[in-house]
Every structure is written in structure tokens, then in C-alpha cells.
Amino acid sequence: MTQEQGPAMIEALGLSKYYGDFAAISDVTFKVHQGEVVAFLGPNGAGKSTTMKLLTGYLAASAGVARIAGHDMAANRLAGSARLGYLPENGPLYPDMTPRALLGFFADARGLSNSRKHDRIDEVVELCSLGSVIGKPIGKLSRGYRQRVGMAQVLLHEPDVLILDEPTAGLDPNQIHEVRETIRKLGRSKTILLSTHILQEVEAMASRVLFINEGRMVFDGTVTDLAKGGKPLDERFRELTAA
User: Fold this and answer.
1) Which end of the chain is more exposed for a tag (fewer CB within 10 A), N or C?
2) Residue 17 to residues 62, 181, 216, 220, Cα–Cα distance (Å)
3) Taking every pair of C-alpha atoms in the chain, what is the biggest distance, in angstroms?
4) What is the pLDDT of residues 146-169, one digit of tens each?
């Protein structure tokens, strides 16, 4: 069992999502406590992205409850969203805008005051190492830099909770290292749920693992527990996804 480090900041309670007779996820239940960095692991198509969209309020659940910082995301999404930073896989960015213009746009949309807006933009630009590209069109940036712009955007309003969907997908090894370092820094002060199917992500960044397969939770424990008996993580992955 993992030691609870604080109140539950992310809660999935019996979450299910049906499309006709197809269950994208079924009865998914877990909690992520304050200060935890938790990897949400599973093969492609297992239900990771669906679960995250339910947690963030982007999708309505067929059954169950999703809470962020105690706020029911179906009944009180605005209050929950104020505490949440969500980075979807391939999140939308405006290619003709510069990072500075984009961050200014989202700061205004979040209702930040002018003084806080400029301070926060400077802070997230430094945190995400965007200074060298701050005036270049986003469409001209590498995938790694675009991912950093997305990360900066979700950090603007200083959320307590971060939900990151495949944040290193499609990046080269140097870019992956940079994103991991950013997430490690954020993990010192944030509660983070990190979706991935890359086993190295689990070992590099998380202390706890949630594993989903075919829409159902099949494991919840520490990285050490996942590698029980000293088995390599790729072997455990195959065991947990075996038909």
C-alpha cells in the first residue's frame, strides 16, 4: 500500500463511459493524493485518454463521479477547472501565434490581472525554457518546443493538479529528457497524473502506477510492486495485458 500524502486531489469513483454497447471504460476507481506523481499506464486503446477526459470534464460519464480537488466535474466543472491544468495529447495550439501571444491570450481567458499576467508569463517561459523561441510562430517550432508551449499554457493559472496525456509522445530523446526534467520539477509542488504507455516514463518520473487494460483497472501500486519478483517492467506489462 502507498502512504497517503494528503487529501485526494484526483478521484475517479466508478467511472464508466459507454458508446452504445461498447464500454470504453468500466467502473474505473482510484484516487491520487496531494503531492503524488502517478503514472497511468496501459496499452494503446486501453481507456487512458477516455478516463482523463472524464476526469477533466471534457467528456460526460455514463456512470460514476470524477472529482478534482474535491469538486465534482459534472456538477461544478468551473471550480474544478480553476485548480486543474490539463495537457491533452497533441493539444491544440495556434500555429500563427507566437508563444508570448498565445500565453497572453490564455492568461486573459483565465481572467488573470495585468500585473499577474505578465509575471506568470515570465515565470512559465523560464520554467519551460521558451526564452529562445518566445517570438517565433508556433507553427515553425519543433514538436518538442510546441509541447513546452502547451505545458506553459496549462501552468499559467498555477493549478494544484496536472493531468498530462502522453506528454513525451513523438519526441526525440533530447526532447524527452527536457520534458521529464520539467515534470520532475513540477512534481515537487503539484499533484500529477501522467498517462503513458512508455515504461521508461514510469521508472523515470512516478512513484505509483495505475494500470488499465481493456477499460478496466488491473493494477494500483508502487513501481516496486509492479516489478514484483524482480521482473522487468516489459514482462509485467505483457502479463497485465494478456488476453
Assistant:
1) C
2) 5, 34, 11, 20
3) 56
4) 988 999 999 999 999 999 998 888
Number of domains in the chain: 2
DSSP 8-class letter at 157: T
Site of grid cell 472524464: 54
- Are 145 and 95 contacting, i.e. CB atoms less than 8 angstroms apart? no
Domain that holds residue 43: 1-83+160-172+187-243
Q: How far is CA 6 from CA 16, 40, 146, 190, in A?
A: 26, 19, 33, 12
Residue 89: how many CB atoms within 10 A of its CB? Answer: 15
Kindly provide the b/e burial profile for residues 133-145, where b requires at least 16 CB atoms within 10 angstroms of the residue's own CB: bbeeebeebeebb
Q: Tell me the pairing of strands 191-196 and 37-41.
A: parallel
25-48 tens-digit pLDDT:
999 999 999 989 999 999 988 999
| pTM across the whole model | 0.90
- Whether residue 43 lies inside any domain: the answer is yes
- Tell how strand 191-196 and strand 161-165 pair up: parallel
Which residue's C-alpha cell is 498517462?
195
First to last CA, the chain: 27
